[in-house]
Predict the structure.
Amino acid sequence: MGRPGDRPSVITARGLRKSFEVKGGATVEAVRGIDLEVPAGQAFGFLGPNGAGKSSTMRMIACVSPRTSGELRILGRDPAVDGVAIRARLGVVPQQDNLDEELSVRENLFVYGRYFGLPRARCWQRADELLEFAQLTEKSGAKVENLSGGMKRRLTIARSLMNEPEVLLLDEPTTGLDPQARHVLWDRLFRLKQQGVTLILTTHYMDEAEQLCDRLVVMDGGVLVAEGSPAELIAGYSTREVLELRFVPGEQTAAEPLVAGLVERVETLPDRLLLYTPDGDRTLAEVTERGVRPVSALVRRSTLEDVFLHLTGRSLVD
């Protein structure tokens, strides 16, 4: 798996900041001096709770929001100077589909291609290529309003590829999709990466981040709190396994002193205890020896969700 420095960087940021004024004249610093490097051809993910600064960072990378200070280079260029030229080489998939519902599937692609100045014949040719890629050829003449949510999402991604971008920015690409549609979309994105397109995405789905991303950053409060591959983050911020002990709600507090000292980290939830351990089966045996009798016990491997919650907490951010 590539690391920064192994391949040319398509995104480089040093001390990148973004602040803006809100009602009452107060200043909010959404991004507070982050350093980033995204190598070409990788899938790079942003994780973080609401208000972490992910969207502000993505908007600066998309050249639609100027940075407040710091250095930012996209494809080797300064977006403050070369924003138009950079945007011509980017594809952007917004969180909400903004397709033209009155046009057909194929017409949506054609019109978008014309925005980039592509010749009419090339637009139709490119549209047909992308319909095949997105598995929408049979729906080419259908109105967008008649498509399923998964089809609309694939069409939005296909549209973002009309200009043959080198970098594709995806904001929550599979939000609201059922599991089957999500997996189809993952397959399309994996194929794009194989073709050399750099993917930069935000997601709230930890399994999606683990499935798609070569490297990730976790943002919280406008700063980067962790960076690495999914495996590196799990190894660095969690344990190999997690033992989940479930109780009748409220009874888990009585078990807390009994498991104290067995592992370095115990997390208490309303109906269970989470014991972070290198060996779940051995820890379960020790728990049983101490007389703890949960309703059920589950040993599972640590996931990115464990890392995310450890780094950013379980409290909701409004």
The longest strand covers residues 9-21. The domain at 238-312 is CATH 3.30.70.940 (Alpha-Beta Plaits). The chain is about 35% helix and 25% strand. The CA atoms of residues 184 and 273 lie 36 Å apart.
